[in-house]
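2.7 Reproducibility. Because tokenized structures are sensitive to small changes in the input, we list the exact sequence used for Aldo/keto reductase, including any N-terminal residues retained from the expression construct. No trimming or masking was applied before prediction.
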Amino acid sequence: MQYRDLGKTGIKVSEVSFGAWAIGGDWGTVRDDDSLKSIQHAIDHGVNFFDTADVYGGGHSEELLGKATKGLEDEVFIATKFCRQGDIHNPNTYSYESVRAYCEASLKRLNRDAIDLYQIHCPATDILRSGQVFDVLDRLQAEGKIRNYGVSVETVEEGLICLEHPNVKTLQVIFNIFRQKPLNELFPKAYENGVGILARVPLASGLLTGKYTEDHTFEESDHRNFNENGEAFNVGETFAGLGFQNGVKLAEQVKWIANERPSMASAALRWILDQKEVSCVIPGFKNTKQIDSNLQALSTKPFTNEEKERLITFYLENVQHLIRGPY
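Resulting structure tokens (single pass, no recycling of outputs):
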């Protein structure tokens, strides 16, 4: 395992870390036993960072991480998120009283004294512009309830707004071969400011594994079934905003990335890790097989400059105009 600085937090995180949305819910059937075994399996292989949120399974994801990492508080770092239990457009959701209540509830579920990284969970753009929520987070940090804070954003514009606040230590962004926009302005500015980047939806909801055909159907409880067009939350969180049919066709066009590499998935993750601004990539997981598959990215051959240029051209000519929703 290789480790990178998580911005200016003072924390070094495993290049391949993991997101814990799937073990909470919205990704089809999952068993707690499998989730706990998978977390331990990842830790045994050097993974020291997990990302979750208070709305993943109504807090169940946090509870599982709290159970799995008990006694490892100084070795395994946890990021969680808040605000989506309330109305993300209502300023009261971001008041000191509300955020402190969200924070204390997460601490209880995580069974920890402090949260390593507390993130605003894709808030309304106007909330970020007002900046008052950052004062609230400064206060919680001074109280010792959180060690660092960052923001999970939907758009490059939101990320740039966050960079105006000096105590924002990380940005979590949708970033993958199908979503390259952050490369142009956001990543360089974040890197210059010492702000860490967490790359989420790295496999475009599974499209970049190359395993799906256009006739595939997803379980009723899987967000890939009920949020393809943004019915439940931002459309970009599902299939990178492309829609399933478009996504499958586009994935076929980049299967060449697996040439001389273990798999398409490991190649897609390797491409993300080839960007120096990225602190870590956080694919999801439901079992140890998926953990092992994603960890293959660590030993996957880096992309050549020619391959990188080919993927940029592919994105500009074939993908960008198909993305729906703000990004």
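Residues 3-322 form a domain with the TIM Barrel fold (CATH 3.20.20.100).
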